Amino acid sequence: MSPERPTHTARRMADIEPFHVMELLGRARELEAAGHDIVHMEIGEPDFGTPEPIIERARQALTDGHTHYTPALGLPALREAIAGHYRDRYGVEIDPGRVVITPGASGALLLALGVLLDRDDELLLADPGYPCNRHFARFVEGQARGVPVDATTRYQLDAERLSAHWNERCVAALVASPSNPTGTLLERSELAALAESVRVRSGRLIVDEIYHGLTYGIEAETVLAVDHGAFVVNSFSKYFCMTGWRLGWLVAPEEYQREVEKLMQNLFIAAPTLAQHAALAAFEPETRKILESRRAEFERRRDFLLPALRELGFEIPVEPRGAFYLYADCSRFGDSKQLASDLLEKAGVAVTPGLDFGNYRPEQHLRFAYTTSMERLEEGVRRIAGFLRVDNH
Amino acid sequence: MSPERPTHTARRMADIEPFHVMELLGRARELEAAGHDIVHMEIGEPDFGTPEPIIERARQALTDGHTHYTPALGLPALREAIAGHYRDRYGVEIDPGRVVITPGASGALLLALGVLLDRDDELLLADPGYPCNRHFARFVEGQARGVPVDATTRYQLDAERLSAHWNERCVAALVASPSNPTGTLLERSELAALAESVRVRSGRLIVDEIYHGLTYGIEAETVLAVDHGAFVVNSFSKYFCMTGWRLGWLVAPEEYQREVEKLMQNLFIAAPTLAQHAALAAFEPETRKILESRRAEFERRRDFLLPALRELGFEIPVEPRGAFYLYADCSRFGDSKQLASDLLEKAGVAVTPGLDFGNYRPEQHLRFAYTTSMERLEEGVRRIAGFLRVDNH
């Protein structure tokens, strides 16, 4: 039987884009396979492996035979540890019953949007932003409405823009602090203003806090300090260096607990068991010490890369104070997609073109990730400098 | 700021039901906490832990520091191992490029339905069946159309019923072989007839093969032997005893590869890394030997439980030859929900009422899982017998 039948594809798939950087990464791998050396400044995960105390806890869980499903909402001990983390780190009291352990922050977003968005309902979010967010909305037949943001609001949605773009189809707004790709944060007063602005419109605020912990000279504020009606998405991937474990969490408002639990059961059954046991070690002092030294290393990298790129002529008007990204205006050097391709082919440096982060001036921006060693960053900057001298001067 | 805003919940949530058995399980745990002994015949996962060679491979992966993301479609070596599994076990050649490693079979189903179902598109499936299937369809704003099935087709959708229920909104049909909750299989000729029936209607067949390997006196046939245009959902959870690892796979038709990859990137980033490395040991002879001895143990349990329940007056008209479930007509003893509650409270035996599996005569059926030891099954049968004698005679 041959598959000559027509290929019926759901219409949503026309709106769901691939990660454009994957093509570039594929080409980078080809170049590497051909013997070229590539400096990777495109990668959205820490170069550090998972801290040893977490690994050790996973080993113990293997020995103890923890290979079955956990309850849908997660290991009670881990939900309590996360509630404790909010108490210790932010001074915020959270009922552990509101914490849902999810398969990555991706799982948490799918739950939040699944319980909130009806077909054609709209989700407001900042453009540029993490590309999957709008695809999650589209996946459930909702619609993301990107709000162009720039340096005047530190690339963040603010209450003014929110009220200007809110319409009767809007049910929620999503912000990220620190933001991918811009590395900027929302202050507590800004979170409170956004929360209030959404609240008076009977909407919900969703805050992506997955880069919390990775901040430099500033502490990230959780929206839970100002709005217990918000949904918080978080993850063990970034600060805790557990990307491959696929573990995150959602803090949902109390009145949504039952709905979130139903969805969690049906969509995922439960988050990975071993990862949950391992993550019990994530909040221990020994682990914290390791993570804080890594945070300091990310800070050193940012402190090197930010002035170095500005020196080369990239415009980064707002100081990025979190995550591990710099979002740079490269317009004086031409179109960002072409530039990214040239940097890869001619200078051996991989960076991500703005295309992956939205529709607002993507051709003018590149994202530089400092998820590689200082030595490699220095080498990358040397190569970029050499390329720009030859090419533009 | 108090959460006095109205609770806007997406309409889909009214159609997405919780696992009813969870309530019963919660009550069982209460009873256990109060000192009562409960025989668990409601649990849908193997009581066996993950085989040691898989555990050992996970230990090695921890030591080797495999804690970062894998490619979105999964570790190439694992995709190849799965293609090898189709060659060795079924004599079917599959391009490893068609194999996508997913976070559980749940992830695979979400991908398949995400690329196939537009809003209001319909998915035909057997009722009774795995409850999450219809919720996955609803999640993406599609609609599952349950087709009542009974002993006359071994509780399976057949080509005749499919053509009787297909309408212009239908884009796909989903069957499971072996089936949860009925444990029955589709023969190769039946799969071929279903495939042809769907094909001529320009639809797609999705086959849930997650209980493959757990069959008794019969080998399960893969739809890939008769239809390369089908979507196959499979899992390391059941036969391979890896439930908590959250690892499955999808074999997608070649012409959908690009769409599936986009969705995989966006929804999940990738499946859990450690689980993928561990699963590399799943197809090794040493592991196979362990799994086959467990299969034999499940068969012994079935061979005990099936006649024992029939003897007690439960009707099981078709011999279940796969998975680890018996779906029994309990109508002579009353409503299944009440009966399940009574069995738990008065006899200390937990079973799942039909309610969890669809809308076709759920009140007449109970699902018995033989995912506990022979001794416990014997004890369970003794208790049920005692309860029925006291209660009904």
From TrEMBL, chains A, B:
Indicate whether Transferase appears among the record's keywords: yes
Protein origin, superkingdom:
Bacteria
Keyword list (alphabetical) reads: Aminotransferase, Pyridoxal phosphate, Transferase
Q: Where is the Aminotransferase class I/classII large domain?
A: 37-384
**Pfam family name, one:** Aminotran_1_2
Establish whether keyword Transferase is in the entry.
yes
GO MF annotation terms: pyridoxal phosphate binding; transaminase activity
This protein's cofactor list reads:
pyridoxal 5'-phosphate
InterPro entries in alphabetical order:
Aminotransferase_I/II_large (IPR004839), AspAT/PAT-like (IPR050596), PyrdxlP-dep_Trfase (IPR015424), PyrdxlP-dep_Trfase_major (IPR015421)
Q: Which GO terms describe its biological process?
A: amino acid metabolic process
Family indicated by similarity = Belongs to the class-I pyridoxal-phosphate-dependent aminotransferase family.
Q: Which NCBIfam families match?
A: PRK07337.1, PRK08960.1
Q: What is this protein called?
A: Aspartate/methionine/tyrosine aminotransferase
Species of origin: Thiohalomonas denitrificans
